Structures are given as C-alpha cells and as structure tokens.
C-alpha cells in the first residue's frame, strides 16, 4: 500500500531519538517498508531519508513585522508548526488521492484530525497522549470516518468520553532490542524532564544500594541542573543521549531498569525496551505500566513512593532474565503491532474498542 505517515514536526525522526514518539514512528515506518509498502513520512527537518521522510516545511513561514507586532501574537514556533501541518493537509486534500491509499496520523497536532474528512482518504490517528484540549476540540468539531487507535487500554479508557479508539499496544523490535547478560548497575532511560522524575529513580537506587546509570536527552536544562547534576557521583552516572546501538548495550548489561513517572504514562516504551533485553523493570504503577509489565516483567510500586520503588528494584532484579525477555516477545513485539496496523489500513477490524 501507499502509506502517508504523519510524524511530529518538533523533533526529527532520526538517531538518537528525542523520545518514544520518534522511536515508535521510525520503527513503524521501517517495518512497513520491509513488508513492501511504499511509505512517505512527513516529519521534522533532519529526519532520516532512508525512512522515506519528506521534510515538513516547519521553517518556511515567517510572520510579517505587522503580525509580530500583534499583542496577541502566537509564539513563532507555534506558528511554524501550524503552518507546516496546514500546508501538508491542504496538499493531501488536493493531491492525496493520487499519491496515497491510507494516511496514518502519528502526530500530536490537531489539524490532521480536523481536516481528515476533506482528504477523501482512509485516515487513522494514533492517540499517544492523555486527552488534551486541542485534540478533543478537533474530534468534537470535525466528525469523520477516521479510525482512532490508542496505544494501551489505559489510554483508550482515558479517551472514551470523546471517541472510542481501537487498542493497539505499542511494540518494540525484539530483534534489535536483544537479550543481554545483565550486570551490577541499574539503569534509567528517557527524556530527563520533571514528569519522568529521574531524580526519584536516583533516590530509589541509592536506598536499594544500586549504582545507577541515566541515559537520555536533556529537554529541561534547568531541571537537570537543579535536580540531576547535584545528585551525580557516588555511583550515579549520566551517560548522555545515546543512539539505539549504545542504548541496547547499556540496557542489556544492566541489572534492573527503573521507570519513575510522575504522570500517567500512555504506554511506557522504555519498559518494553528493557524487558526485550531481559532486564526486569521496577516502576511506579502509573498509566499503562501495570498492563505492560505484569508480574513476569518486573515489579510495581505505589506512585511517588521512593521507598516502595527501592523495594521493587530489589525484588525485580531477582527475576529470571529469560522469562522477562519471553514476556516482552509475547506482549511487546513490533511485528504484532504492525500486523494490526496493516489490518486497519486494509479496513479490517482489529481487537477490542474502548
């Protein structure tokens, strides 16, 4: 099939990935290409052309001096993002039926939802976040035959007041995230931002007597400088923003992975990646993490309870790594996810709805 995959305009779909959404889009696009589909990914500047990425024109719009002088003017980054998606959707309305069989909206922007019906194409949107106002507004004001997909049962339940999404859990490439031997250190991976709370993982690791590595992009420099940098040392290391090859190696040689969100994770890709490496997970029981991890993949702790997370880490590290890996292959594999998306692309029913 000819698939138009709409990605985020904020971060490129390229290594090292800025977050789970970018990693998910790259994995989905690569898998579809491997299965013989013709994939075009509309993404941010700097995205990998091997994925069929076509740059969204994020930087091509500059407001006039008069528009900048407007006291109610939007930030220029907001305007550029709006301009990029507006240009894309207008192009799909005019030329999309000649170029594509299906459009898969994997972005977090409201315009692909609001303008989907006008394209005349089979259109599906994956909901990667809890409900947000601009997406709810687009769904309410622009009813269309679009299909909505939630990345977990938790996320589907959160959206059920606005739409009834099909549930297709995210997946990771278990042939790339290979089993590792484990090691002596714990690991925390992801964006270093307050809502992911790596500072709580540091405190839990210390109370559990575990040295800890942190890996991921610093999206909030003030938070890193105030909450992370002072806690480094004495067994706590920051490895930097790693590409997937180095990240697989780091996770696979870790004793346990800590996941410490202070928000309800819509899925929890870092937990799936760790389990695919055979590394058990100790996590706060928030969002979709309980349905993702289960008793075979790790141990759960009461949200925000650092002592409970420390106890979960001590217990989780005793789990059999082969069983952890088997759980990930059975429940978190990319191929299962892509199978389901292919069925939706073809108009076939998939799984349960919220």
Automatic annotation (TrEMBL):
Stored Gene3D superfamilies: Glycogen Phosphorylase B
Assigned keywords, A-Z: Glycosyltransferase, Transferase
Top-level division of the source organism's lineage: Bacteria
Gene Ontology molecular function: glycosyltransferase activity
InterPro entries: Glyco_trans_1, Glyco_trans_4-like_N
Keyword Transferase among record annotations: yes
Residue intervals of the Glycosyltransferase subfamily 4-like N-terminal domain: 19-176
Chain ranges passing through the membrane: none
The keyword Protease appears for this protein: no
Domain Glycosyl transferase family, first and last residues per copy: 186-312
SUPFAM superfamilies, per database record: UDP-Glycosyltransferase/glycogen phosphorylase
Protein name from the UniProt record: Glycosyltransferase family 4 protein
